[in-house]
Structure formats: C-alpha cells, structure tokens
Amino acid sequence: MQGRRPRPEKQMKDFREVLDECGMLDLGYQGFPFTWCNNRDPLNTTWVLLDRGVATLDWIHKFHGARLEHLNVTNSDHKCLHLELEPCNQPHQVRRPFRFEEIWTSDVGCEATIQSEWDKTRSGTAMFQVWNKLKDCKRGLGRWSRQHFGNVTRQLAEKCQQLLDAETNAIQGGEYGQSEAFEV
C-alpha cells in the first residue's frame, strides 16, 4: 500500500489466519503492482494491491501453468484480474528486465527518443501518467536500440565464438593469420 494509512493489524492477522486455515496460497501476478487507486491528485493519490488471486496447493498443481494478470481498465478505479488457466499454445518468451545502457548516451538518438516518448499526452492521474511515460520510454528505447545498435548480446556471442574458433585453429597448429579476421 502506498499513500494511505495501514490497515489495523488485527484485521490483517485475522485475514491471514483464514487463508492459512483454508490452505490458500497467493498466486502472484503479472502487470502493474497495484490494483486500486483513489484517482485523486498526486499529493492525495493512494495505490493499493487490494485484489489478489488465491488457491489451494492442489489447485496450483492441477493448473500449474496458470497466470494472474492485472489488466488496465479505463472505467474503474480497480484493475481487472485476468486468470489464464493454460498458457497459450505459442511458446512463451521470458523477457529480460529493461536496463538503460550508458553507451546509448553517446548517440543523439537516445535523448530524442526519450523526449519523443515523454512528450506523448496521457490521461489519468499524474502518477499514472508518469508510469505510462516511463513504460513508453522503455519501449521506445528498446526499439531505438535494436535499430541503431542491433542485438548486442547476439553480436557478443558471435564474436566469442569466432575467438574460440581462432583459438581452436591455433591450438590445432593453424596460423592465426589463416583464421578469419573479425572486428571487435
């Protein structure tokens, strides 16, 4: 909970005891970390992880691929909870966390990308607007980086393989000059 008085400890303790007695476990979630907002001005905004998904261990084993996601909605102060029992038939690609790369600052396109994404108009509370602007900057920088720098991880792996091949060739009696030259 952010921006609000804590709930009475006895109330929370009683709730946790009921969950324990029923053998319920939190399913976790994907998406925005809060599910309710009072939609007030920034100084008075309250964000709370109010809505949760819980299940028994037997249910979790039966639906081991289940995912709970917090979906954005425009006509409510609550996020919508979407429970997917079976993952899509398409393979699910695990996303790496976003990391801002210092090398980007050496290219003028970095600042232009950030400015372009930040200048987009968003509706909602000021905090929600900031959250969306940060999300847009992350996506925009990712697209820009792929276009201007390419897949650096793949390029590094290829260069490491080339180095390993050159070393293997040299160990087997070949000359370094016979190995294919590559740029770093």
Characterization of this structure:
This protein has 184 residues and is α+β, with helices and mostly antiparallel strands. The protein is flat. The chain has a three-stranded mixed sheet, with no helix packed on it. The protein has a two-stranded antiparallel ribbon with strand order 1-5. A hairpin with an 8-residue loop joins strand 6 and strand 7. It has five helices and seven strands.
How is the topology of this model organized?
Elements (H helix, E strand, L loop, with lengths): L8 H13 L2 E3 L3 E2 L4 E2 L9 E2 L5 E3 H6 L4 E5 L8 E5 L23 H11 L7 H23 L3 H20 L13
Parallel strand pairs: 2-6
Antiparallel strand pairs: 1-5, 3-4, 6-7
Please sum up the structure shown:
The protein has 184 residues and is of the alpha+beta class. Helices cover 40% and strands 12% of the residues.
CA(first)-CA(last) distance: 48 Å
How would you classify the quaternary structure?
A: single chain
Strand/helix succession: HEEEEEHEEHHH
| Mean pLDDT over the full residue set | 81
The coarse silhouette is: flat
Topology, number of strands: 7
Q: Trace the largest sheet across and list its strands.
A: 2-6-7
Into which percentage range does the β-strand content fall?
A: 5-15%
Which regions have little confidence, pLDDT < 50, spanning 5+ residues?
none
Binned, the helix content reads 25-40%
Radius of gyration, Cα only, in angstroms?
Answer: 25 Å
Largest sheet: 3 strands, mixed
Total helix count?
Answer: 5
Q: Label the structural class.
A: alpha+beta
